[in-house]
Amino acid sequence: MTALPLVAALAWTAALIADKGPLGSAGALLTGVGLVIIAAVAVVGMTVTGGRWAHRLALVSVGAGLTIATIRPIDGFWVAATTASVISGSTLFLPRLTRGIRKLPAATGPPQSAVVLTLALLTIPFLLGVLSGRSATWAILVVGLTAPLVAFLYARVIPGGLLGVRVAWPLLALSLAPVLTLVAGILTALSALAVLAIAWQPEVKTSFHPPHETGSTYPIPPELTPKDILDAARLDDRGRPK
Questions:
Q1: Which of 36, 69, 120, 164 is packed most tightly, with the most Cβ within 10 A?
Q2: DSSP string, 112-155
Q3: pLDDT tens, residue by residue, 135-151
Q4: Alpha-carbon radius of gyration of the chain
Q5: Do residues 46 and 88 lie in contact, with contact meaning Cβ atoms separated by under 8 Å?
Q6: How many angstroms separate the CA atoms of 53 and 129, rounded?
Q7: What pLDDT, in 10s, does the model give residues 109-138?
């Protein structure tokens, strides 16, 4: 049941392979890849952590699939994918599934800004693919496919991940925005600015590089040590081996 959003995403990807509709090859690629990434992360999050963010992301993946339904021609693939999306969306509200979702944020979980940053980067390929349509170019592919890559590097605390979300991807997106179509360029520029605003918050760095404290030990005088501990360690009342 939890995996149904991913099944629906794969169904829509197959539908786009069969008929791209108003999307070009590059646009369909970004849309399909982006939808599968969103659904896969949501399914893993619900299964492993039971996170509220994962449940909401699963709802986003269902809505994204139904968005494709509004722009793609109706055929057998459309009917199958739409049916999968409707069933998937319905099951996300069943008590059997929602019981496994936390009602409150995890006390030891990452800060909200770090979660929002990662999820925002994951949705960029889908948004660019849908909005670019047949005008999608290599520049859109570069911007769209590198967004989830830097999100993965950051989320997995891989070297270069923090630099990727704070500097590399925003600069790449801003530099390529002028060569995109008007709508895609505006979305790319706004996405880069939003990522910059979130990524430079202190909590984002703390999530990637948690503070470390060097521990220290202090010897306890034998006179202050309980006798049962000294006996267990086979030491006399002056701390010497018996």
A1: 164
A2: HHHHHHHHHHHHHHHHHHHHHGGG--HHHHHHHHHHHHHHHHHH
A3: 778 889 999 999 999 99
A4: 25
A5: no
A6: 23
A7: 678 899 999 999 999 999 999 988 777 788
